Amino acid sequence: MQKIFADATAALDGLLFDGMTIAAGGFGLCGIPERLIDAIVASGVKELTIASNNAGIDNEGLGKLLRTRQVKKMISSYVGENKEFERQFLAKELEVEFCPQGTLAERMRAGGAGIPGFYTRTGVGTQVAEGKEVKNFDGEDYILERGIRADLSIIKGWKADEVGNLRFRKTARNFNQPAATCGRICIAEVEEIVPVGSLEPDCVHLPSIYVKRMILGAPYDKKIEFRTVREREDA
Amino acid sequence: MGWDRNQMAARAAKELRDGYYVNLGIGIPTLVANNIPADMTVTLQSENGMLGIGPFPYEDEVDADLINAGKQTISELPSSSYFSSSDSFAMIRGGHIDLTVLGAMEVSEGGDIANWMIPGKMIKGMGGAMDLVAGVKKIIVVMEHVSKNGDPKFIPECTLPLTGKNVVDMIITDLAVFQRADHDSPFRLTELAPGVAAEEVRDKTAAHYVE
Q1: Beta partners for A144?
Q2: Nearest to A125 among B66, B68, B165 (CB)
């Protein structure tokens, strides 16, 4: 079975439909599946529900899909640094489900692991708990959160072998790992595809079973939101 | 008089212990990292998936794949490790992080904290703050004693949407330190910043506390 596709448009062929739910990896602009996002923008698919920790920034990452008004609803923990998002949200053109970051990660992990719901202390007594079942375990209240099952997962990896075993790099792993598991189909874009046998099996971060389709997305021009540096003491 | 931002961070750093795993919020809490005693091993967690945050990188070491939860470029240490967001919050929710230092817009006398939303104004989202206050063993809030308008921020009940209910253990402001022994006890004024009188703290605090 061939998992490697020529480009993002080819990899998405037959998978997109209006009103679908997409889970996306990335934290800020770190480790975002930018080739796939561009191809989804170009496809014109609309009324999307997107589960992603952030919503990109103006005209970067998922910000591009917001600009073209293809998104109906975001499920996110943090959406700062995005003026177009703020405008659409305040104008009630965009629905937002604020979800605590750890709860969002666990909702993806649980969805991918066949767990429809779980109890967590996160959000108890806050507006996040509104309308949710509360259950007391050992004297502490917990709220019921639902696992997320997406129609499609889009992720960014570092290195994959030809069958889809995949490694991430540094903090670009973030939501890519749980997001990969919660979609009925996961497409990964990676920086490098290596022959089978060249990844140490003990060092695979995402086993190939989760990666159904794959593209080589390189070369990447990775964006940095806040470049912070220090001076060398004795230059 | 009172403490400046760095001195508040230095006061919070006195709560660190050798071997602690700590998560620092954005703003004044980040400055706590500059005040870790040299003879102490403290490991900083970044909730986007890293243990062992290093200092800001040198210009030629900047790496877009290596950022902290504030999306700033950072560096790694020989002892660092990386993991997914779900593993990161398993650590946080599972009670494995010893201490977190967070900013706040309001704290109530019952230990509620509000720091993520001003209805109609600020709609950025809670990020990982709700998970941190629900899961970390000890929660320290570092904040200015009063708002820019001069209104008390330590108050009987929060007016803003909550981040967590009955979760705060300690409050460090520019004027004073409040602590409580457990989540059923009231806050007690335990320290005054240099040059600050108990009366000034009383005047600028709406919350009930024990002196």
Answers
A1: A119
A2: B165
Q: Given its phi and psi angles, is residue A35 left (phi above 0), alpha (psi -120 to 50 degrees) or beta? A: alpha
pLDDT of residue A59 exceeding 90, the answer is: no
Give residues with Cβ within 8 angstroms of A154, minimum separation 6: A22, A23, A24, A25, A33, A36, A37, A40, A179, A183, A186, A187, A189
Helix (H, G, I), strand (E, B) or coil at A158: strand
Whether A169 and B65 have beta carbons less than 8 Å apart is answered as yes
With CA atoms as reference, the chain B residue closest to A88 would be B123
Query: Cα(A68)–Cα(A58) distance, rounded to whole angstroms?
Result: 11
Could you count the other beta carbons within 10 Å of the beta carbon of residue B40? Answer: 12
pLDDT at B172 over 90: yes
Catalytic residue among B15, B47, B106, B109: B47
Model confidence at A235, pLDDT cuts 50, 70, 90, reads low
Please state the pTM of the whole predicted model: 0.97
The residues with which A159 forms a beta bridge, in sequence order, are: A167, A192
Rounded to a whole number, what is the distance in Å from the CA of B129 to chain A's nearest CA? Answer: 7
Q: What is the rounded CA–CA span in Å between residue B94 and residue B207?
A: 31
**Is A92 part of the contact surface with chain B (CB cutoff 8 Å)?**
no
Residue B112 with chain A: CB contacts under 8 Å = 125
Neighbours of A41 (CB within 10 A): 15
Amino acid at B162: L
**Which residue, A135, A178, A149, A131, is CA-closest to A31?**
A178
Q: What is the mean pLDDT of residues B157-185?
A: 98
A102 touches chain B (CB under 8 A): yes
With contacts defined as CB-CB under 8 Å, which chain A residues touch B63?
A: 170
Nearest CA in chain A to B65: A172
pLDDT score of A234:
65
Cis status of the peptide bond prior to A219, with omega within 30 of 0: yes
Q: Are strands B21-24 and A213-216 parallel, antiparallel or unpaired?
A: unpaired
Half-sphere exposure of B139 (CA within 13 A, CB side): 26
Task: For residue B93, give the nearest of A78, A90, A122 by CB distance.
Answer: A122
Mutate to test the interface with B, among A81, A122, A132, A140 (most CBs of B within 10 A): A122
Is residue B47 annotated as part of the catalytic site, yes or no?
yes
Q: Does A52 touch chain B (CB under 8 A)?
A: no
- Taking alpha carbons only, the member of B105, B132, B161, B128 closest to residue A78 is B128
- Residue A177's φ and ψ, nearest 5 degrees, are -65, -55
For the cut 80, the answer to whether the pLDDT of residue B40 exceeds it is yes
Which of residues 153 through 182 in chain B touch A, CB cutoff 8 A?
Answer: 161-166
